[in-house]
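Continuing from the previous page of notes. For each protein in this section, the sequence appears first, followed by its structure tokens. Read the first protein now.
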Amino acid sequence: MQEEQIREALDKHWQASAAGDTNAEHDIYDDDAICDYPQSGERILGRSNLQALRSHHPGKPSGFTVKRILGRDDLWITEYTITYQGRSAFTVSIMEFRDDKVVHETQYFADPFEAPAWRSQWVQRIT
């Protein structure tokens, strides 16, 4: 799969995710895809289980913003923010493609935190 095609597939995937279209969202995955959530120690096996899990999430996202997508060959990374019940989760998705489908995804979620005052002289605030 060409890099332009992968980027287009990723754009469609994230747009469908933001819209809550779970069918279109999961078109990108291979039937035997694996999705890992290292922070909770969970592994989801197969596209159908991943779609079922996401379809039954009790706190549907109320906001979804892609910050950037970087990739090359068969490895692509998306940095984005999801808002669940008024709280932001800063998220990184690492996707590995084989042919034209994602065969392995790892997602990392991080809560925001207050910047400590002691380092303010060396940093700029971003929004």
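Done with the first. The second protein uses the same format. Note its length before scrolling.
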Amino acid sequence: MSIDTPILSEGGAGGAGGDLVKDTTTQDSMRDVIEASQAVPVLVDFWAPWCGPCRQLTPVLERLVRAAKGAVKLVKLNIDGHPQIPSQMGVQSIPAVFAFQDGRPVDGFMGALPESQVKSFIARLTGDVSADLAAVLEAAEEALAAGDVNAAAQTFGEVLQKDAEKPQAAAGLAKCYIKTGDLVRAEQTLALVPPAKADSAPVASARAMLELARKAPNEGEVDALRAKLAADPQDHQARFDLALALNAKGDREGALEELLSIIRKNRGWNDDAARKQLLQLFEAWGTSDQTAALGRQKLSSILFA
């Protein structure tokens, strides 16, 4: 979000008040936002009664601000009754949240974000990343899963600045590098993990993902490999390569089915390569991944049939 300094109303007498959550008006905005943000960060929630996503976001904001116990305040502004300020700030859609500090807007977001991402936003704003580390890391993981690699990398990096030995943050940052094709920096990031934590689940997942990235065929080979299989359905090597290419493309279900197909037809092919590859995929995808859980069930049903 682009942040520009608005010209808020200078009307409204009285102090900033002690409430952590309050409604404001155009007249009182100088006191409630600009003056109050000299002491603690202030979130301004632009909303309207007809806005469905606003009704989802505002209670989350209120709960998290109160949970912060004074480290941040929330000011709500109904844009229907007070259109001047949102117009000055370039608010084109709601919900929209701007964060003010020392009298100036410093950050913001639009849309009803998941609670974990709102937690991360508040934690970054208050400079208290470590206090809510689990929520911050969860938000980073969600951003990575959604394809927002830059946001995920930024958050993982911030966590590492606070705790250089946090394996989940290092693994997450390494995965960001893998997503962008920078395998060298991914390996360098994983090398920073202390030996005592090198075998942790997040790091093992990142290492497996790195190994897969190194040996995966070019995504453009998918059509060629499908053509080879159409000509010879028993070409297990082509099916194996197709599985890796599909995984590199993000098609986990497709990769799973191709490898399971090899195992069904010839369990021992190439020294049990398909089963071993599946186990590496499961590790790379992580223990909480639904495709990995389904794949383990299907693999077990085949092996123990």
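What the second structure shows: Confidence is low (pLDDT under 50) at residues 2-7, 9-18. The CA atoms of residues 151 and 296 lie 31 Å apart. We return to this in next week's lecture.
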